[in-house]
Amino acid sequence: MRTFLFLFAVLFLLAPARNAFFDEKCSRLQGRCVNSCQKNEELVALCQKSLKCCLTLQPCWKNTND
């Protein structure tokens, strides 16, 4: 029983560090954490609390020199 309580305490204390890792990854990719991505966005990573890290897609413009 002590082992179970110890493992539970360790996992409970590590959860905020793990969540911060996901948010940091999203901000490093210059994305934003939302419930669902819009049409012009792409899912690039996961955030904490089941959120998605969405990044706006760059539009493909035609080359004006052609």
Question: Overview of this structure, please?
Answer:
This protein is α+β, with helices and mostly antiparallel strands and 66 residues long. Helices cover 41% and strands 21% of the residues. A hairpin with a 5-residue loop joins strand 2 and strand 3 (52-56). It has one domain (1-56): Antimicrobial Peptide, Beta-defensin 2, Chain A (Roll), CATH 3.10.360. Strands 1-3-2 form a three-stranded antiparallel β-sheet, covered by helices on one side.
Structure at a glance:
With 66 residues, this protein is an alpha+beta fold.
Number of helices: 1
| Overall tally of structural domains | 1
The total beta strand count reads: 3
Structural class: alpha+beta
CATH topology: Antimicrobial Peptide, Beta-defensin 2, Chain A
Q: What Rg do the Cα atoms give?
A: 19 Å
Overall helicity: 40-55%
Strand order of the largest sheet: 1-3-2
> How do the SSEs run, as a string of H and E?
HEEE
| Coarse morphology | elongated
CATH architectural group: Roll
- Poorly predicted sequence stretches spanning 5 or more consecutive residues: none
Strand content: 15-25%
Sheet with the most strands, sense and barrel status: 3 strands, antiparallel
* CATH hierarchy, class: Alpha Beta
Kindly report the average pLDDT value: 75
Q: Distance N terminus to C terminus?
A: 73 Å
**CATH homologous superfamily - what is it?**
Antimicrobial Peptide, Beta-defensin 2, Chain A
Function: Has antibacterial activity.
Family: Belongs to the beta-defensin family.
Pfam families: Defensin_beta_2
Domain Beta-defensin: 25-54
